[in-house]
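Per reviewer request, we include the raw input and output of the structure prediction for the construct analysed in the revised manuscript.
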Amino acid sequence: MSEETDRTPVSVFTSPGRYVQGRGALGRLGTLLGGLGSRRPLVLTDDVVRGLTEEVITESFAQADLPLIFERFGGVPTSAEADRVSAVINEGEHDIVIGLGGGTAIDTAKAAGDNTGVPWVSAATVASTDAPTSALSVVYTESGSFESYRFYDRNPALVVVDTQYVAQAPVRFLSAGVGDAFATWIEARAVRRAHTTNMVGGRPTHAGTALAELCWELLWRSALPALEAVEKNLVTPDVEAVVEATTLLSGLGFESGGLAAAHAVHDGLTAVEQTHHLTHGEKVNLGSLTQLVLEGAPASEIDPFAEFTARAGLPTTLTEAGLGDAGDAVLDEVVRAATAPSETIHKLAFTPTHRDVVEALRAVEGIGRRARARVGLGEPTPEDYR
């Protein structure tokens, strides 16, 4: 094979081994693990999620004749935390690690599994990010700033999402998932237009891009009624559709379709302490609006998106991010991080300058304020998200 052929991009699609979603799905975890050949799993979770799920998981593991061993998650998906969990896996001779709860525990389980060479499983009790399905972790510093993406050569062996727990969680979690998932199509179509590569280093497949678009369509159709249902702890067809969109379709779509500016702006926002009260998906929504401005999207596209996401409980202004009165130095710090050489903003078909991104961020404030006014919301404040 010639060197020229070696450098030719190929199309790549990636996915978890199996995806299981529905009310009561967590009760099947033991049987599903047994099907993977596990005899000594380790469950990584925090104290709150353990308290909510221990009874169900105990029964599930007993039915599968599996020992139940919990390890307490430290709360932040740092490299040091992954190393600590890796040592627990090795010392306990565990053959699989399960990240139980939200994206941070799941991302840490992936890293520890990769460190030790054992498979990893995502067991999600919230639908706040698309982390459960992907072959990457977002690594943060102890202070909560974005540090890096860590990529793996395989996806989770199994993903289990129990929609009863999603419906019982605070509605803000699902709202954040909507914000994260809406970016999937905005970024995947940008990568397609630019003929750049996806998150697994290949050209996006038609399937990956189509799933990103389906994610977008489901959210427009079902997000608002799903959020209303979760406020009442109900599992409805709209809830099932939105959980599939925020977890499965968004995960497949971002990884096989690609990321662009929206997630890069998210990463930049994590660089300043003022934004740390926002969840991942809330910051991503601001990134989506920023990318639309950078691309020169028409008001007929931007305004309905800002209005819809404001109604979905997502921030649409810098004020809500704690940056309403931010000076140039603060926004410069955000933009430096968002435009770092390794960032996905460079997947766009053009190269925005530092000034372009600063001005797009500042433009979001007015767009978001007008959108909030049109849908009858009050003045924006960061206190809404604390």
